[in-house]
Amino acid sequence: METIHYTIDARDQSLGRVASEAAKALLGKKSAQFVNNAILPMTVTITNASKLSLPLRRVAGKEYTHYTGHPGGLITQGLADMIEKKGVGEAIRKAVDGMLPRNKLRKGRMKLLTITD
Fold it and tell me: Is residue 75, in this structure, part of any structural domain at all?
């Protein structure tokens, strides 16, 4: 089976729209060869990530939390902080990761995602 290349232009689109379209493509729902229990050879590229439409209210209000499992190990990071440190691509990557099912295929599917500015 040959590799299918799927490109998403993020210019002037919201974070959720781009992430849900990428998640559908990574799952294989945009392909005629869709099977639920396998990773399809489909690469998804998101272009113009820096031109994503992010309202100021969303950037200021969104927080990501992570718990280490230790007492006092709750870590929170704001979206503005994440964009400053790691770029907009990391916010898109986290959104897509959250939309994929939590199973053994998740890591392999995420490796097929490429984000460019």
Answer: no
Confidence of residue 25 (pLDDT cuts 50, 70, 90): very high
Q: Is 103 a domain residue?
A: yes
Could you give the angle at the alpha carbon of 7 between the alpha carbons of 48 and 106, nearest 5°? 100
Q: Which residues contact 22 (CB under 8 A, 6 or more apart)?
A: 8, 44, 46, 92, 96, 113
Task: Indicate whether 111 belongs to any domain.
Answer: yes
pTM for the predicted model, two decimal places? 0.91
Token match 């994503």: residue? 52
Tens-digit pLDDT profile for residues 55-111? 999 999 999 999 999 999 999 999 999 999 999 999 999 999 999 999 999 999 999
Q: Given its phi and psi angles, is residue 7 left (phi above 0), alpha (psi -120 to 50 degrees) or beta?
A: beta
> How many domains does one find in the chain?
1
Integer Cα distance of 112 and 42 in angstroms: 7
Q: Name the region of 104 (left: φ>0; alpha: ψ -120 to 50; beta: rest).
A: alpha
Which domain covers residue 32, as residue numbers? 4-54+87-115
